[in-house]
Amino acid sequence: MQDPRYHGFELAYGCDPSALERKLRAAFEPLSLDAETRAFMDEEVARTHGRLSSWAQASLRPFLSDFDVNGLLDSYPLFLLSSAQWRELIPSTQSGRALDVGAAAGHVTSRFAALFGDLCATETSWAMARRLRRRGIACERVDIASAPVPAPPYDVVLCLNVIDRCDRPRSLLRNAYAALRPGGHLVVAAPLPLSPFVYDGGSTRDPREPLHAPGPRWEASAGQLWHHVLAPLGGSLRRLARAPYISGGDRARPLYVLDDAIFVIRKES
Fold it and tell me: Helix 66-73 vs helix 51-60: angle between axes, to the nearest 10 degrees?
């Protein structure tokens, strides 16, 4: 399938079904570029990125992680799916409870928040946690890879673009899955092929729990991530989608785009 382009960026939503194994092929949900995604990109491309912001970013990065810097300066807003696309992918009820793990500043969270009666988040970055609370999203500063998940059980737990920047991603996923009620859903998004690392202050290092899904193609990497990381959790794959993970830019580039896989996994018991 030819990838659509917008503002000159490749936005991949389709895949080569023949390159997916039967289980993943049956679960694949094709999405497409919609008006809400276009509006986000238009706004970010039109945004003026001043010298002061660039100077502040460069000055703080030797001392703080990118997460803390971006939270402090409210920079690089993020977009994964539109509200309508979230409604297509994840089961929701107005009385349902959801937890967004590693929710950053809440840009992505805000697009599915209305699907649930009760939504909260976790974050390890103090600056991001402050942004979430300013948005009206309840947030606990906790790393659920090593600490109890707050107030389980949940109908939906979301780990969106977290496992590739997490020190103990396998532990995080096990604890997130355990926090679901029977019949609940774990939603995992990750840019493929995986290239994991962890921020350690102003530098980076390899995670303690490595993940291996090198691809090289998106379809191969999705299969590797499912078999080696997600399937061992014990749930059943209900949906698989592909979508661009879009970040607002800076003076160097108006946008940054990664190629995400989104897995929706049902807890059967």
Answer: 140
Q: 28 is written with which tokens? A: 């694949």
CA-atom Rg of the chain in angstroms: 18
Helix or strand run (H / E) with residue 203 = strand 203-205
How far apart CA 240 and CA 90 sit, in angstroms, is 11
Instruction: Quote the pTM value.
Output: 0.91
- How far apart (Å, rounded) are the C-alpha atoms in residues 41 and 51? 21
> pLDDT of 95-115, one tens digit each?
799 999 999 999 999 999 999
Identity (one letter) of the amino acid at 76?
Answer: Y
How far apart CA 202 and CA 68 sit, in angstroms, is: 10
Place of tokens 């009385």: 95
Is the per-residue pLDDT at 71 higher than 60? no
Closest listed residue to residue 267, CA positions, set 164, 208, 184, 150: 184
Whether 98 contacts 155, CB under 8 Å: yes
For 148-185, give the DSSP string: PPSS--EEEEEEES-GGG-SSHHHHHHHHHHTEEEEEE
- Which residues lie below 8 Å from residue 18, measured CB to CB, with a gap of 6+? none
Say how many CA atoms lie within 13 Å of 222 toward its Cβ.
Answer: 30
Q: How far, in whole angstroms, is CA 21 from its chain's centroid?
A: 24
